[in-house]
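S1.2 Input.
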Amino acid sequence: TAKFSKAFGDAPIIEVSGRMYPVEVRYQPVDPVREENGEATYVDEAIACVEKLQQERRYDDILIFMPTEQDIRETCERLSKRCTGLVLPLYARLSGSQQRLVFEKAGEQKIIVATNIAETSLTIPGIKYVIDSGLARILEYNPRSQTTGLPVKPVSRSSAEQRKGRCGRVQNGICIRLYSADDHSERQLYTAPEIMRSNLAGVILRMLTLNLGSVQSFPFIDRPHPKSIRDGIDILHDLGAIEKITGDYETDTYKLTAIGRKMAQLPLDPRISRILIDAEKEGCIREAAIIAAALSIQDPRERPYDKTDQAARAHALFQHPESDFLTYLNIWDHYHDIWERLQTQNKLRKFCHEHFLSYRRMIEWRDIYQQITGIIYDDKIPANIKKHGKTDMDQNLYDKIHKCILSGYISHIAQKKEKNFYLAAKSREVMIYPGSGLFNRAGSWIVAAEITQTSRLFARNVANIKSEWLEEIGKDNCRYTYAAAHWEKSRGQVVALERVTLFGLTIVEKRPVAYERINPEEARSIFIREALVTGEVNRKIPFLEHNLALWQKAIQMEEKLRKRGIVADEEAIARLYEERLPVLSDIRSLLKLIRDKGSDDFLRFREEDFIAVEPDENELFRHPDKIKIGEAVFPCSYNFAPGKSNDGVTMKIPLGLVSKAASENVERFLPSLLQEKTLHLLKSLPKTIRQKLPAAQQIAASFIDQTVDSRKALPQSLSQFIQDKYRITIPQEAWGLEKLPTHLNVRYSVIDEKGKEVKVSRDIGQLQEELADTANLSALDNIRPQWERENIVSWDFGTLPAAIPLTTRHGLVGYAYPALQEKDDAINLRLFFDQRESETHHIRGVSALYSIHFADRLKQLKKNIALTGELKLIAAKIGNPKLLEQSLLKRVKVDLFRRPWRSGDDFLKHAAVIETQILQYGQQLLKSIEPVLQAFSDTQALLHKLALKNRGNNPLLAFFKDTQNELQNLVPIDFAELYSFERMKELPRYLKALALRAERGSLNLAAARKKIENIAVYSQKLQQIIVSDENDVIPVKAGFQVLQRLNFTAPDFPEEKRNMIEE
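S1.3 Output.
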C-alpha cells in the first residue's frame, strides 16, 4: 500500500478494517530430528492435530493448508481412515462439482484440505480451525532458462496472516502453524509481486504499443530484475515482434515490427499471438484459433484423484499420437459434434461428465475462441470459421498447424537424447510430462507449449516436428559455423561443412555449402591447390590435361633418376595459376572465364615451367619407358619410394604374357638398373674374393659391354664372366642376394584385359606358378554347373571319375577332383582343385550316404549299444555315458562305412556285404570295451584308496593326482574311436601297469619320479606327433605306431618303461 501511495504522489491511504474474531495461534513444528530421519512430515503432524482436536471434542469445521495436490490426496486418504467427519479436498484442478461440496452444509464436521486457493481466492464459511503447513507452490519464472517453475516454498508472513484469518470470520478460532515462531518471524513480510516472478514479454509488448518509452527507464512500482526485462525483450525478438532502434542495454530503444503490431491487437500471450498471425498466412486459422484458445485457459480435462484410471481411459478417445495440440482439436471436434447433434445443455453436460471434461471450461474455451476470431476478422467471421465441423486432418494440414505453433514456441524446441528425455534450448534437459499423449513415443524433435519446473523440468503440451522446419522458422536466431573447407570433386566446387545451431541445439550437421560466399580468397586458394594442381576434377578440361601430362612427365624424371629437386613443387605450380586466375572456386566459373577469353591458352604451361633443375638426358635414356621382348611390349614405370612396396621399376605384364616375360632376363633391357645391380653384387662379395679382382666399376663396365645379349640370371652371368676373364671361381652363395636393396629387383605387375592389377611380385617364377593356378580355378568354375549337385540322398549320379581334365584356349591347365561332401547335415557333390582335400571329403561323404542308406539299422544299433547296469555306472566315472554310446556309433561308421567308392555298383556291393555285419560289429565293440571299463574302475578305486591312506602327504597326493590325470588321458570318454581292437585288448594291461606304478610310488616316490623323467623325452616326441590341424586330429592309435618305432630304435629301453610310455 505504501508503495502505491508513493508511486502516485503520496496519495492518502484509507484503511478500512473488517470485523475479525480473536484467533489463537499455536506453533506446533515438526520434530526436526524425526523429519531428518524420515519418521515424520508436515502431513503426519497435520493429521495428529486433527486427531487431537477431535479428542478435545472440537467438532467445528477444519481447514488444512497443504502445498501440493499429492499432499492433499495423501492427507485426505489418511484422515478418512483415522478421523471422523467429512473429508474434502480443494484445489484448482478439482472438478466444479467436487469444489461445490466445500460450500454446502453437512450434517457432520467438515475437514477441508486445500492448497493456497483457499487463502484469498475464496471464502469457506464455518471454519473455526486452521492447520497451516506454512508451505505453498509459488509460481516463478526463471528468465535465464525461460522456464516456469512451481517450487514448494515457505509462505510469507502476510500469507500466513491471510491463512489465519480464514478461521476468525464468524467466531473465535484456532490457527495451528506446523512451524516455529522463530521460523515465522524470519520469513519475508510479503510474497514477491507477480511482476517480479513472471514472464514480461506480454508486459513489454503492451508498453511498446502504448508508447510508454524505454522499458529500462519505466518507473515500475516494483522494478523487475534487469534479467527479466532482457528475457522479455529476447522473447519478443525471437518472435519477430520488435527490432532495435539504437542505444546500448541501458538506453536502447525498440520499436514494434509489422508482426509485433498485429500481435499487440490480440489480448493473448505473445507466443500464442504469433501462432495466430502465421496461421492466417498458412490458411489454418480455425485450427490455430482453437488451439490458441485452449492454451489460454486451464486444461479442460479433469482427473479426479479417485478416478484417475477412468479419466485416462476417457481421455484416450481424444489423444493424438503425434501432437498434444491436436488432442485439443480432437476434444473440440467431439464436443461440437455432440452439440450439433443434441442441441441440449443437459446432454452436453452429460457428455462432459462421462468424458471427464469441465463443462465450465469448455464454455470458457468456446467464448475465447469466438473472441479471438472476432478480433482477427473484425467481427466479420467467415462461415468456415464459424462452423464447428470435424477437422479433416492430413499431413499437409498437420505441417501447417505445427509450423505455426513452432513460430510461437521456437525457443521451446528439444532434441531427443533417450526415451522421453530431451535436450532443450540453453542446454536444459527436459522430460516429456507423463500425462502427454507422446509419452514413450515421441520423435526426434519436439516443440512444447510449456516447460515447467516441478519435481523436475517437464515439457508439457508437446508435438513432433520436422527438423527441416527449424532453420526456416528460426532463421533469425540460427548460428552458422564452418569447418573442413575442401575441394569436392563431385560437386565441382570448394565446399565447407556448415553446422547450424538454434538456441545451442544442432539442427544441421555437416551440410556442404559453397565456400566462396563465406571466404572467397581462401576458396580460390583451395580450388587451385586441391583441384587444378592435383587434377582432381569431374570432367575433362583440355588445358588441365595438358598441364598434368607435362607435370607427370617431369615427375617421372625424378622417379627414374631417384633424385628429388628436379620437379617444381606444388606450391610453385599453384603460384602459376594464381598469376593467371581471378577470384573463383568452381569449375563452372572457370569454364565461363575460358569462354569469355575465347581460349584456354592463358592457362597452358610449358614443360620448363615444371622443371626446377635440368636432368642429364643421357641418364634419362638409360631408363626406358617400355621393354620389347619378341613382339611383345611391356610398359615400365618408376617410383622413388625407399621402404615402400612399389619402390623401383615396375614392369606391367598382360595376364596371357607372364610366361613370355619369364623367358627373358629383363634386367638386360634396363641399362641403369643393370649397372647399379652389378656394382652392388660385386661389392657384396667376401673381402677375400674382392682382393683378387680389379675395381668393381672396371669389372661392371667390361661385363655390361660383353654380355648385352645374355639371358642367364645376373649372378650366374657374373660368375661365368669372372671365371672366363679372371680365372676365379665364385660360388653362387657368395653373392649377397639377400642384401640387395628392394629397388634393384624388378617389380612385376600382372594386369588383366581391363588394365586392373591381378598380382604383383618381384619373383617372376612365383607369379608364373600362381597364375597358372588362377587359370585352373577359372576353368574349374566353368565346369561346376554340369557336375555339382545339392542334397544327395542316394547314389543316383553315376560313376565319379577320379579326375576331370581342365582345359582353356591355351590347352590343358590342370584337373578337377569330384567328391561327395558332407556339410550342414546335407550331402553335396562338389569339385575340388586339391586332390587330397577331395579324397578327405569323399570318404566322409560316402560314409554319410551309407548312414542314410542304413538309417533303420543304425536306429536299431543305437538301442543295442546303449549302456546299462554296471557298465553305465563305470562310464559315468569317465564322463557322460551318452558320449561313449555316440563314440561306439561313430566307430561303427568309420570302420564299416568309410570307403573310397566312385561307382554306384561298388557302393551297393559293399552295402550288401555289411548289411548283416552292422549290428554284430556294434556288439563286438561293446564287448571289447567291457574289460577296459572294469580295469579303469579298479585302477581308479586303487588310486582313491592310496590317496585316503596317505592323507596329509602332499607330495604323494600330487603324484596320485598326476596318475589320475594320466588315467583320464589314457581312457577318455571317446576311447572307443581311438584304439584298434588289438590295442583295446592291451588297455587293461596298461591300466594295471599304471596301478602298479602308483603302488610303487607310494613306497618310493623318488624312484617313481626318476622313471617318469627317463621317459619324458619319448612322451614329448609323442606329443609333437599327435597334433591337430584345421580339419582332423591324428588318432591316438597313430601315436602307438610312433611308440612302436621308438621301441625298435631303443632296444635296451626297459620293458616297464615301454609300457609306461604306451600308457
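S1.4 Remarks. Residues 1024-1063 have pLDDT under 50 and may be disordered.
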